[in-house]
Design brief:
The chain has one helix and three strands. By secondary structure, it is an alpha+beta fold. The chain has one domain. The chain is elongated. The structure holds zinc ion.
């Protein structure tokens, strides 16, 4: 992605390996669990959110399993 874009900008065209994106609003979001920041298209923000959700659910489930087994 072009690094000159700011949140709220509309990118007329973004070319990715999987397709062309027209009139894309650039968004900026922060993961509430770990504070990581993402800036990019909504399409990629969805991947960022889904990825973090899956990761944090996995690590939380792991912690609960370890606790239930009497571990630290
Ligand atoms: Zn996160």
């Amino acid at each position: 992605m072009n690094e000159d874009y700011e949140a709220g900008d509309i990118a007329p065209l973004i070319i990715t390996p999987t397709g062309l994106y027209f009139s894309c609003e650039i968004v900026e979001i922060t993961c509430p669990a770990c504070g990581e920041l993402f800036k990019g298209t909504k399409r990629d923000a969805g991947g960022f959110i889904a990825g973090h959700q899956a990761y944090h659910e996995f690590t939380n489930a792991q912690d609960m399993l370890i606790t239930s087994l009497g571990g630290v």
